[in-house]
Recover the amino acids of this structure.
């Protein structure tokens, strides 16, 4: 079996090499590893850094204009050849050391979809994070559970892992951070249960490069409602 790791990137010159190295060096048992990096028209030195990479084990694609995180992930999905797909942000908020426990339920046949839940980790470090982000995520997750009958704790997590068959034929439209509510809604509507695994999380602040805002939260709510009644 093969694990396809999609890394959407936008203006992450300070972290992209460290993230890629962590992903490359992380052991995942007997699974083969496919790394797919999509630069979403970065304005800093990210593109130059990626162009200098010389690795046969990494597929790198460049958008010719900025389209958003969701669009970058959709580009990555078109080029995956693995049996299992994992989304990895290009900052250092999520640690690839979590891979073994995230893919374990899928390998053992317990679930076809696994989310890494940050809730426990966030609560322990809440003083270092934007409380508005935390409360927004709690609200959006509550709305997800209400609308789709699920029992998850962290809909907005960046660590989403699933078998490729789960999204086969799925029409994804997301361009920005709407990828999270859209794919969650459509996974649940297809009848899949999401298994959550607690993960560690090192949240960044805006001055450190964080990009999601309260506006994206309002839009996420709209998408959750929209996809409950349409495709």
């Amino acid at each position: 079996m093969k694990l396809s790791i999609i890394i959407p990137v936008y203006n992450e010159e300070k972290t992209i090499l460290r993230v890629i190295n962590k992903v490359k060096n992380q052991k995942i048992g007997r699974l083969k590893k496919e790394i797919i990096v999509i630069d979403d028209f970065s304005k800093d030195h990210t593109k130059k850094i990626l162009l200098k990479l010389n690795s046969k084990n990494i597929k790198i694609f460049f958008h010719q204009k900025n389209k958003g995180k969701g669009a970058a992930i959709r580009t990555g999905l078109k080029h995956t050849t693995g049996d299992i797909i994992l989304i990895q942000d290009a900052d250092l908020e999520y640690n690839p050391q979590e891979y073994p426990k995230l893919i374990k339920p899928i390998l053992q046949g317990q679930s076809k979809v696994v989310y890494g839940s940050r809730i426990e980790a966030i609560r322990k470090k809440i003083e270092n994070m934007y409380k508005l982000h935390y409360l927004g995520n709690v609200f959006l997750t509550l709305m997800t559970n209400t609308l789709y009958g699920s029992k998850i704790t962290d809909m907005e997590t960046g660590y989403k892992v699933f078998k490729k068959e789960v999204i086969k034929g799925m029409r994804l439209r997301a361009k920005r951070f709407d990828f999270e509510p859209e794919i969650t809604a459509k996974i649940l509507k297809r009848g899949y249960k999401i298994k959550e695994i607690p993960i560690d999380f090192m949240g960044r602040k805006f001055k450190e490069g964080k990009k999601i805002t309260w506006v994206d939260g309002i839009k996420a709510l709209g998408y959750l409602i929209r996809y409950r009644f349409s495709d």
